């Protein structure tokens, strides 16, 4: 019964956010902070899932310049956990098929996010090349999930290199954002589903990397994030 009630309430809330967010973003058309505002609206829904989410930011959070943020992509609960970490003047890169998701697709488009056609490799490479231009021309940051798909309990999947090529081309740092494991930890029939920790790590300078060793950068970031996720999981386990 609790699960059905939660699904109903969350569905209504998500539709309202999408509709009101679309109107809000239309009024502020192409404002680069729309994405972050909508992400925080969704992030505030976490109590409906019985979750307590802790957000951790570096001390330099208010001094961060344009960057490429990379996060671990676990499941649909990312919408109410790690999404809250999206900063102002940050847009995300998502698969082209998102435009067809009822209510959400139009919101995703009108807030200024960037669509990626994964089935067309030439277009996908072109999109990555354009990111550097947008970062510098529009003073934007970009949010990406370098795994390319939800991990669904398989741990942190190998990273694709698109985000790292874009960071090197634009000359901006990579900022990893990690969320503790939520796979198989949330039971919608359970009132209290515990703690989730989302943490933004310090910026990683990419000036020592080039397209020739971009895979080394991707591997370094992957290992750093994997280690930190394990540490957060251990911290939560000790607190329970």
Automatic annotation (TrEMBL):
Belongs to the 1-acyl-sn-glycerol-3-phosphate acyltransferase family. Residues 67-182 form the Phospholipid/glycerol acyltransferase domain. Keywords: Acyltransferase, Lipid biosynthesis, Lipid metabolism, Membrane, Phospholipid biosynthesis, Phospholipid metabolism, Transferase, Transmembrane, Transmembrane helix. The HXXXXD motif is essential for acyltransferase activity and may constitute the binding site for the phosphate moiety of the glycerol-3-phosphate. It is an enzyme of class 2 (transferase). GO terms for molecular function: 1-acylglycerol-3-phosphate O-acyltransferase activity. It catalyses: a 1-acyl-sn-glycero-3-phosphate + an acyl-CoA = a 1,2-diacyl-sn-glycero-3-phosphate + CoA. The keyword Phosphoprotein does not apply. It comes from Haemophilus haemolyticus. This is 1-acyl-sn-glycerol-3-phosphate acyltransferase. Pfam families: Acyltransferase. It comes from the Bacteria. Pathway: Phospholipid metabolism; CDP-diacylglycerol biosynthesis; CDP-diacylglycerol from sn-glycerol 3-phosphate: step 2/3; Lipid metabolism. InterPro entries: AGP_acyltrans, Plipid/glycerol_acylTrfase. The chain crosses the membrane at residues 7-27, 97-116. Its EC number is 2.3.1.51.
């Amino acid at each position: 019964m609790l699960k059905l009630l939660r699904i109903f309430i969350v569905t209504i809330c998500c539709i309202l956010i999408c509709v009101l967010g679309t109107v809000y973003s239309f009024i502020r058309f192409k404002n680069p902070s729309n994405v972050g505002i909508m992400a925080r609206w969704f992030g505030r829904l976490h109590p409906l899932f019985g979750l307590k989410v802790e957000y951790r930011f570096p001390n330099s959070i208010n001094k961060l310049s344009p960057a490429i943020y990379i996060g671990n992509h676990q499941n649909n609960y990312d919408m109410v956990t790690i999404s809250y970490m999206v900063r102002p003047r940050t847009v995300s890169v998502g698969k082209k098929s998102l435009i067809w998701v009822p209510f959400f697709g139009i919101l995703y488009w009108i807030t200024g996010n960037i669509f990626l056609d994964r089935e067309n490799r030439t277009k996908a490479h072109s999109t990555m090349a354009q990111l550097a231009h947008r970062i510098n021309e529009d003073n934007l940051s970009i949010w990406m999930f370098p795994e390319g798909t939800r991990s669904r309990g398989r741990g942190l999947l190998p990273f694709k290199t698109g985000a790292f090529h874009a960071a090197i081309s634009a000359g901006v740092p990579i900022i990893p954002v990690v969320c503790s494991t939520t796979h198989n930890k949330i039971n919608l029939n359970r009132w209290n589903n515990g703690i989730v920790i989302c943490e933004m790590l310090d910026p990683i300078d990419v000036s020592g990397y080039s397209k020739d060793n971009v895979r080394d950068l991707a591997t370094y970031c992957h290992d750093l994030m994997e280690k930190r996720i394990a540490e957060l999981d251990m911290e939560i386990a000790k607190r329970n």
